[in-house]
Amino acid sequence: MRCKLVKLSRFSGNKASIYSIILNDEQETLLDKFIYENKNLFLGEIIDILKRLITIGQKTGARIDYFKLFEGKPGDGVCALYDDDDSNLRLYCIRYGTQLVVVGNGGPKPKSIRALQEDDKLTDENYFLKWLSSEITTRIKEREICYTNDFLDFSGDLEFQDDETDPLI
Amino acid sequence: MKTYSSNLIDDLLDSIDPLDQGKADAKMMLAAKIADAMKAKKWKKQDLLRAVGKDNPSIITKWLSGTHNFTVDTLIELQHALDITLLDLADQGETVLAKYHQSVSQKVLIVADMTLMKDMLDIHKNATTTSSFIFSQNKHSNQPGAMA
User: Fold this and answer.
1) What residues of B are in contact with residue A65 (Cβ under 8 Å)?
2) pLDDT surpassing 70 at residue B130
3) Which of B60, B82, B104 is the last residue in one of the domains?
4) Which of A99, A112, A153, B20 can pair with A148 through a Cys bridge, CB separation 3.0 to 4.6 Å?
């Protein structure tokens, strides 16, 4: 499986950049997939999420309190965008400080479950972001990826390949 | 950096009413202001919880998440606890107060005018009565056989 990071122009601003991920040779990002998969049942919640992403990019930055933390391994930045108590959707992200967010996919989180591991779709999306986060961290350590001076962007090789495993299968 | 957008995202974003976006902005910016004030005071969530006299720690997480629709009462409690301004009513208040003063002073003037007018009428009435009396007295005094 291959994937690449792309910057979402409509959300990104001078407070934060919002990225998403394109898998293999697909044309759409994981955020587009999240919208497609859930818009029929939860359009209102999707609009709320999009509004929050705009505010993050253009007004406030990706403040830590806007996210549910510890959705991944310690320190890997995998989190979920905070939602209303009565909302159904969970959108997974990787947060890099207040200036950079990579938005993945997610899905409905049934009220009947407490841990994401109880839902296969959420587990897959979450594990994929954990894998990607670990790849990005490795590249940052090896200086194949670095932050721009304003910390608003990644520069370097933003395409990834995992020949051994496919976390989405 | 090459950027990405899609028709799907563009259409949804274009459908958002700017007023609704403003509401989302306001909720998240209020949360940011509260978080900044806590940081300035070196307060943990428990400190704010104690300061506003609440019991449930999850309410602070909710306030800071940027999803909470604050009531005016809560904002005033937070302003007091954190010593910050979340509701800026100063200009509005001065205008209202000035209008109130203007209105009151106009009413006072009107009342004063009416009182003055009443006084003048009374004086005029009294004066008329007095002059009538004097006139009458004089009239009587000028008559033959009248008392001096």
Assistant:
1) 31, 35, 61, 64-66
2) no
3) B82
4) A153
In this structure, how many other beta carbons lie within 10 angstroms of the beta carbon of residue B121?
10
pTM above 0.90, yes or no: no
- The ipTM estimated for the assembled molecules is 0.90
In A, minimum Cα distance to B69 occurs at A84
Contact flag B29-A59 (C-beta cutoff 8 Å) = yes
* Beta-sheet pairing, A2-8 with B3-4: parallel
Strand ranges inside A60-153, DSSP E: 67-68, 78-81, 89-96, 100-108, 145-147
Give the pair of three-digit tokens for residue B25: 């902005």
What average pLDDT is seen over chain A?
91
B57, B82, B107 — which closes off a domain?
Answer: B82
Q: Do B5 and A153 touch (CB under 8 A)?
A: no
Supply the range of the domain harboring residue B144. 89-148
Q: Do B28 and A60 touch (CB under 8 A)?
A: yes
Asked if the structure places residue B11 within a domain, the reply is: no
